[in-house]
Amino acid sequence: MRRWQKLSVIAWMLAMSAGMQAQDDRPVIYQALPRLFGNTDETRKPHGTLEENGCGKFAHFNDRALEELKNFGITHLWLTGVLEQASGTEYPDRKADPADILKGIAGSPYAIRDYFDVSPDYAMDPAKRLDEFKELIERCRRHGIDVIIDFVPNHVARSYASDIRPGLSFGAKDDNSVFFARDNHFFYVQPGMAEGGPPLRLPTAGREGCTGLFAPETDFVRVTGNNAITFAPGEGDWYETVKLNYGHDFTRGRDTSHLPGADADASEVPDTWRKMDEIFAYWQEMGVRGFRVDMAHMVPMEFWSWMIQRARARDAKVYIFGEAYDNDPAKLTDGNVLDALLKAGFDAVYDDPVYDICMGFYDDFAGGLKWANDLDALTFTGERFHRSLRYAENHDEVRLASPKEWGGLGMAVGRPVSAVLFGMGRGPLMVYHGQEVGEPAAGSEGFGGDDGRTSIFDYWSMPEFQKWINGGKFDGGRLSSEQSDLRNWYRQLLAVTKEPAFTRGEFYGLNHFNKENPAFGRVDGEMVSGHWFYAYLRRDAQSGQAFLVVANFHPEREISGVKVRISEDALQWLGKGKKDLRFAEALIDAWTAEIPASALPERGLALPPMRPLEARMLRIE
Questions:
Q1: Residues 6+ apart with CB under 8 A from 40
Q2: Maximal C-alpha separation, the chain
Q3: Burial of residue 58, with CB atoms counted within 10 A of its CB: 0-12 exposed, 13-18 middle, 19 or more buried
Q4: Residue partners of 488: CB distance under 8 A and separation at least 6
Q5: What is the C-alpha end-to-end distance of the chain, expressed in Å?
Q6: 518-551: per-residue pLDDT in tens?
Q7: pLDDT at position 529
């Protein structure tokens, strides 16, 4: 028996709301890779160079572009991959990195070469790249948009060496004769720990311009960013990166209680902690107001408690959210790592589990297709429910409009998925550039291949997104009517979810009460409801504002005759009394309906025909 069947609805709601704070100012984050955002070059040669395929610049986030993002509903701009990364592109003051330690000519944005610098690719004058980045931060500030950048704590590029702060580079004083030492910055593979011995043998041997070797790791070999203890990492390893050491030997398990506490003096903590705190402080001083932390679960919780406390002493409103996955064996806690990160001071964590279920409606990637009812289990997560960052796309995930993913349904699948995800909780929301116009990531781009993702490794441009850029006008002048409608729909969705019921309110799921309701979207002889249909309530006690959110996830079936039942407990929770209730659509049209509250538990609210992949947000008045 599932948990919701054991709990009373009121107990469920109390458990959900305990300890949660209002999120009136919750971020609406727009993720954009500068290389892609402003690139208007349409060459798109697979494996092309910067000169061949072009590259977006900091300057392309101009006043017009930022004004459009602000009008779209954005509060925070996550400039993905701005830190200087290992790259195959050479500049007068910067040699290209060897091809053997690169993924793609542009390189991975998560193989950091200098934590204190930004990529010269993004500057009109590469020698003034930091100045141009500071100017972008100031432009964003004028438009009321806070800048977020990546913080990549778990690993660095094999070629890491800071030109800006050479005294704070990693590894210079390491003892490489041992696997682990508290103040070493890296882990060193020792004889007998893996087959063979030095030198490092990379899986790149035989590729153009590659030897399979990396000269600095001839006499010693470091552990890869994904914890691979090997002299010869494979294709599936993060072979272009090396893992950083936070004073804990990860081979000895997840118990990190031996590490210093949050109030420890800087002199008492492992050296990597101090350097990372210097990096955080450097960008905060420059005006960066937020950080997206890469693979946060692979770093000790004690470090996060210590460093986040120091970061907030510098800027009480710094916004820190983490990419983390509780099902990753590399996590450094035995409990749920998402909860542990929130306890350590993170403002929010990735909501990958809910995303995965939504994708599972259409793609059998997890051992069986999912039902909308499967979302219910993930509404019992306590404080985390309202502190989860919800997204339907990001750079690691496949595009909604990909012809190969999400059932090949195209851009329309983003409507029910985004509406349900964005309306669920009080946590931050995120839109990935191109999502709002149906960018499909179709075809091979280079190292990224034809994987349904817009490549972060290659010099590239986004053909559908370029139609919104429209040669630098940022007016959507080349979009199709379908794309314009989709972008306007996302704008309206973000506007509705800024209402108090969504920013401050609680969540009340309705699928459990409607499972035996035959008029709750059943199709094809189903004996239980809740396969393709999902419904929930949001209510803000302070203002009394309430919404009913409903979605038809079916890829091709219009569902008519839907009647959503709302239980007596739910009506009591809504606080609307016994009077008639008016439901008014706020997302897509002017549909309204009135019904006595007393009729909702049995008869239910009759909805208009729900088209395939349609969602509605009904204001309850």
A1: 54, 461, 466, 469, 471, 472
A2: 79
A3: buried
A4: none
A5: 36
A6: 999 999 999 999 999 999 999 999 999 999 999 9
A7: 97
User: Is the N-terminal amide bond of 199 cis, ω within 30° of 0?
Assistant: yes
Q: In 3-state terms, what secondary structure has residue 365?
A: coil
Distance of CA 324 to CAs 45, 251, 256, Å? 34, 20, 18
Q: Which of 319, 416, 309 is nearest to 372 (CA)?
A: 416
Report d(CA 376, CA 534) in Å as an integer. 10
Closest among 104, 46, 111, 103 to 85, alpha carbons compared = 111
Q: Which of 336, 518, 378, 370 is nearest to 4 (CA)?
A: 378
Cβ atoms 136, 147 nearer than 8 A:
yes
Q: How many residues does the chain have?
A: 621
What is 285-342 written as a DSSP string?
Answer: HHT--EEEETTGGGS-HHHHHHHHHHHHHH-TT-EEEE---TT-TT-S-SS-HHHHHH
In the sheet that 592-596 helps form, which strands lie side by side, from edge to edge?
506-509, 533-539, 546-552, 614-620, 580-585, 592-596
Check residue 235 and give its pLDDT: 95
Residues 6+ apart with CB under 8 A from 524: none
For residue 485, the SS3 value is: helix
| Average pLDDT score over residue span 39-62 | 97
Task: Give the contacts of 253 (CB within 8 A, at least 6 positions apart).
Answer: none
pTM beyond cutoff 0.70: yes
Distance of CA 254 to the CA centre of its chain: 25
3-class DSSP state for residue 570? Answer: helix
User: Three-class SS of residue 426?
Assistant: coil
Checking DSSP bridges between strand 348-350 and strand 319-322, what pairing results, if any?
A: parallel
CA separation (Å) from 469 to 62, 137, 342, 546? Answer: 12, 21, 37, 37
Which residues touch 324 (CB under 8 Å, ≥6 apart)? Answer: 295, 296, 297, 331, 337, 338, 341, 349, 350
Q: d(Cα 351, Cα 340) in Å, to the nearest integer?
A: 14
Q: How far apart are CA 374 and CA 336, in angstroms?
A: 19
118-151 confidence digits (pLDDT tens): 999 999 999 999 999 999 999 999 999 999 999 9
Beta bridge partners of 536: 509, 549
What CA dihedral angle connects 525, 531, 533 and 536, to 10 degrees?
A: 130
Q: Cβ neighbours of residue 573 under 8 Å, at least 6 residues apart? A: 9, 10, 13, 506, 508, 537, 539
The residues, any chain, with a CB within 8 Å of residue 508's CB and separated by 6 or more, are 9, 13, 536, 537, 538, 539, 570, 573
**What letter does residue 244 receive in the DSSP assignment?**
B
Three-class DSSP category at 591:
coil
3-state secondary structure of 195: coil
By C-alpha distance, which of 389, 80, 383, 115 is closest to 272?
115
Residue 100 has pLDDT above 50, yes or no: yes
Other CB atoms within a 10 A radius of the CB of residue 472 amount to 12
